[in-house]
Amino acid sequence: MPHDGHDHSDNRFSKTELRVKALQTLLIDKGLVERDALDALIDTYETQIGPRNGAAVIARAWLDPEFKAWLLRDATAAIRSLGYMGRQGEHMAVVENTPHVHNMVVCTLCSCYPWPVLGLPPTWYKSAPYRARAVRDPRGVLREFGTELCKDVEIKVWDSTSEMRYLVLPMRPVGSDGMDETALADLVSRNSMIGVELARAPGVRGAA
């Protein structure tokens, strides 16, 4: 699992991933696309456009109790009302972190992931080690991402499938009172919506 500059990813790729890599290599070798441009495009969808959509959803829920209740009751409809819809986001469920319960998401069979609100799935999410250890040792996985939880906090692991994809509603950070929706969205990272990290405290910078 690569995070914070450490690469613990699995080197084994699925047949689909190998085909994609082969296609990328072919396009680059034929001069049809530049590697830097391709990398920039992937990074944009993986860490910027998609996660910003999800961050907007979370920020709205933090500010609007009625929207939050709707989001927890019918996530698909609530998210669609903000204009975020499409393939891989047809069936959504949102699970809320509290002082007593921390949620994290995995897809144990493949890499089911809510693209409309999170963009492209990160490499570590698709890796075999994460998929196995998130279920077997979730507290250890969280620790590797720098997330230390009190022993009395229950950890719930949700297994995304093609029928249901999960999004974590992180706890609103202390000190964020009075912040508007745009500022609150800046505190929400992709990893916090997967549940491997917490939302950032105001004034703390971090990767998406």
Explain what you see:
- There is one protein chain.
- With 208 residues, the protein is mainly alpha-helical.
- It has one domain: Nitrile Hydratase, Chain A (Alpha-Beta Complex).
- It is built from ten helices and four strands; from the N terminus they run H-H-H-H-E-E-H-H-H-H-E-E-H-H.
- The chain has helices at residues 15-29, 35-63, 65-73, 75-81, 115-118, 123-126, 128-136, 138-144, 181-185, 190-194, and strands at residues 92-96, 101-106, 154-159, 165-169.
- Helix 2 packs across helix 3 (65-73).
- The longest helix is centred in the first third of the chain and has 29 residues, at 35-63.
- It starts with 14 loop residues before the first helix and ends in a 14-residue tail after the last helix.
- The relative contact order is 0.18.
Explain the layout of strands and helices.
Layout: H1 15-29, H2 35-63, H3 65-73, H4 75-81, E1 92-96, E2 101-106, H5 115-118, H6 123-126, H7 128-136, H8 138-144, E3 154-159, E4 165-169, H9 181-185, H10 190-194
Parallel strand pairs: 1-4, 2-3
Key structural traits:
208 residues, mainly alpha, Nitrile Hydratase, Chain A, two-stranded parallel sheet, 4 strands, disordered N terminus
Q: What summary fits the major beta sheet?
A: 2 strands, parallel
Q: Give the spatial strand order of the biggest sheet.
A: 1-4
Per the CATH scheme, the topology name is Nitrile Hydratase, Chain A
**Average pLDDT score:** 84
Total number of β-strand segments? 4
Give the ordered list of helices and strands: HHHHEEHHHHEEHH
Beta-strand content estimate: 5-15%
Can you identify the CATH superfamily?
Nitrile hydratase alpha /Thiocyanate hydrolase gamma
Shape by Cα distribution: globular
User: Can you tell me the number of structural domains?
Assistant: 1
Decide which structural class fits the backbone: mainly alpha
Distance between the termini: 16 Å
Low-confidence region ranges: 1-12
Fraction of helical residues: 40-55%
CATH architecture identity: Alpha-Beta Complex
